[in-house]
Amino acid sequence: MIKSNFNSKFCQYVQDNISIVEKDRKFVSDVYKSFQDVLGGNNTLQIGSYPRFTAIRPLHDLDILYILGEWDKNDHNPVSLLQSVQNKIKNEYVNPTKHTYNVSLQSHSITIVFKEHGEEIFAVDIVPAYVYSDNEFDQDTYKVPEIAEQKHIKRKQFYKQLQESDIDMGWIHTDPRGYIEITKQVNEVNNDFRRVVKFIKAWKNSHKEEKEEFKLKSFHIEQVIIQYYQENTELEIFDAIFKFL
């Protein structure tokens, strides 16, 4: 089989088996809008792979930054504000799905878990953020609690570790708008980019299922492949996949 046929097969496989389907996109869009209706559209920002269009199925969670204002290194305890947000969600939130949900408050985030027959099927984590500086695209960057670096399924454990160690939550500088812009620009030059990212993420997840200690992170995969396409804008999906593997 010639390479062009392999390229075509890879593209079709990603579309048919890995990419987010329209039904799931509508679900996330409806859920995100439902929180914007409560928190305000100007105060919220999706982060992670979903707004970069590099997420893969099945979708499990969505992270939303809740922007509280400008960063003040001497005053950035979000607890009281998050308590107000929790009450606001409980009193005003309109669930756009057919699923039940519950809201829980931690010291530096709010988690909303959607359930079906008692089983979690999707979760939203609302994480506080403060505007910190500008990126190269003149967009806001943020300070966020380090819990934002943890996957949803590991956040309870992370909170527990901090509590047991009597350690305060750290804050990190992050640039989600910049990451979104870079992935957009790279994909506009060569739309194989996102396909390759999705394929490698699916490969990583299959290894993770077999070997829990498999350390490779999805975000790092994305950054490596961005570099591939910045170095060679004509890189084909076949070559990019096997360059990584």
UniProtKB/TrEMBL annotation:
Identify the InterPro entries for this entry. NT_sf (IPR043519)
Which keywords does this Swiss-Prot/TrEMBL entry list? Transferase
Molecular function via GO: transferase activity
- Superkingdom assignment: Bacteria
| Keyword Transferase in annotation | yes
* Name the UniProt record assigns to this protein: [similarity to] nucleotidyltransferase
